[in-house]
Design a protein that fits this description.
The chain has one domain. Helix content is about 85%, strand content about 0%. The protein contains 19 helices and no strands. The chain starts with a helix and ends in a 12-residue tail after the last helix.
């Protein structure tokens, strides 16, 4: 009954109400998910005597953590929209095989990444710019964190399949469970047991493990899902793998972009910041800014992930009016959230940055740079819906292009160019300038693509009359 009811709602329920029902738990999950990194950064940044260096060291680990997340998104965000489309087509057997293949891929990739990053963590961190005063903190944190890579892959990647079946509430529990445990364990491991920055990583590892176990229990045993994980489906099909990766590569590139950009930005800040002490302040500030950026994107990701199963289902059912209405309401919610958060960052940067560290020099610099960095961020409310709708609709080519547009094709060249005229602040200003150009280009292409779908979906199939829906 629950399976039939969810299928009926994806096809018929009023879009605003359904989108809110699917998005609100996803938004809550994304906001709580941000606590994983933010809680670590708050406790680490406030470690007595070494907080500033430890926080900067943590910043050098972020690209590796983003790479692990990127691979989980490659499979999760590549496979889950396809699952929604298969359900829209009424093919549950194909959906089950796709979900099982995705799970096996996540296990295999997580195992490989664990070994790779554990053994090479010191050379990698040195390459990323960590120096003698920050490298020990970065190496200690990463050495523990990567041991839980498989847990990260499962909790992030397979949670997308719960959301794709409309079970965003269960997905929320996944994230809340992990974040709550992390919040409890962080101060115990860091301060009470005196494990320092390694204790923060251990708390995160345990939290991710519990989240992964919850996801697996629900996917294997819950009768509330339209498609469950079954041992018979846990095999890799290379055709299915190619299909998953083809669609997931956009989100993968988006996450990898963040990693590559953070590496380059850290190196550019080291180059243009002057002395090691000053450049460390800039890199520490970027660690704080990236924490705030994670908070900014979390509700937007929740909205687009709430819209994803509806959009995917509508594409499978060739229901253009409902597809168009879903996109319109997703834009309304996303732009509203983006604007409200932009106002908070511009009006209250000082108090927000002070949460992470009590060093006056670091806090003051972070507050000034926050205003520069976020000055055009409200535009991404529209961008997120457009870009992720391409993924939900199964368009791998356009989703890939827009996955690399903002960060690789625009931001990185600007980050090298602007400092020639503006000094070290030019590295920071590359982000807001790239935002403007990205939104303009994406909106033009997305509008044309929707018109193409309208013509395709309203045209009759061979031997059929035209659909009455317009």
């Amino acid at each position: 009954m629950a399976q039939t009811d969810m299928s009926r709602q994806l096809a018929q329920a009023p879009v605003p109400r359904l989108l809110l029902r699917l998005s609100l738990p996803a938004i809550a999950a994304q906001l709580v998910n941000a606590l994983y990194s933010i809680v670590d950064r708050v406790f680490i940044g406030n470690m007595p005597g070494v907080g500033a260096d430890a926080l900067t060291g943590l910043g050098f680990t972020m690209p590796v953590i983003m790479i692990i997340s990127a691979f989980s998104m490659l499979i999760g965000m590549g496979g889950s929209p396809l699952l929604s489309i298969r359900l829209g087509e009424g093919d549950k057997a194909a959906a089950a095989r796709l979900q099982g293949c995705s799970f096996t891929l996540l296990l295999a990739i997580g195992t490989v990444l664990t070994g790779l990053f554990w053994f090479l963590r010191v050379p990698i961190l040195t390459l990323f710019g960590a120096e003698a005063n920050t490298l020990p903190y970065a190496a200690d944190y990463l050495g523990v964190y990567v041991l839980g890579s498989v847990f990260v892959m499962i909790s992030l990647g397979m949670n997308a399949f719960l959301n794709a079946q409309g079970r965003t509430g269960v997905g929320t529990v996944t994230v809340v469970l992990g974040a709550a445990v992390n919040l409890i364990l962080d101060p115990i491991f860091i301060y009470v047991l005196d494990l320092g920055i390694a204790g923060a990583a251990l708390a995160t590892l345990i939290s991710q493990a519990l989240s992964a176990l919850w996801v697996l229990w629900f996917l294997f045993f819950s009768k509330r899902l339209m498609v469950r994980l079954r041992p018979a489906d846990l095999h890799v099909s290379w055709t299915t793998t190619a299909e998953i990766c083809k669609l997931g590569v956009s989100t993968f590139i988006f996450e990898i972009n963040e990693s590559v950009v953070q590496i380059v930005i850290n190196l550019l800040l080291r180059r243009w910041g002057g002395s090691t002490a000053v450049s460390d302040l800039y890199i520490g500030s970027m660690t704080i800014i990236n924490s705030l950026l994670a908070v900014f994107f979390m509700p937007l990701k929740g909205i687009v992930r709430g819209a994803q199963p509806i959009i995917g289902y509508c594409c499978g059912a060739r229901d253009y009016p409902r597809l168009r209405e879903t996109v319109r309401w997703a834009r309304v919610f996303s732009i509203t959230c983006a604007t409200l958060m932009w106002a908070c960052f511009e009006l209250f940067p000082g108090p927000l940055c002070a949460i992470f560290n009590d060093d006056p020099a670091l806090t003051d610099l972070s507050a000034r740079l926050t205003r520069l960095f976020f000055c055009t961020i409200f535009l991404l409310g529209l961008q997120m819906v457009n870009q992720h709708s391409f993924i939900a609709m199964g368009n791998a080519k356009l989703s890939f292009f827009f996955g690399i547009l903002r960060k690789i094709l625009l931001l990185l060249p600007l980050a090298f160019l602007l400092p020639l005229f503006l000094g070290v602040d030019g590295v920071i200003l590359a982000e807001p300038v790239a935002n403007v150009f990205t939104v303009i280009i994406t909106q033009i292409v997305f509008t044309r693509y929707l018109e193409q779908l309208r013509r395709e979906f309203t045209a009759p199939h061979p031997g059929e009359t035209a659909s009455p829906r317009t």
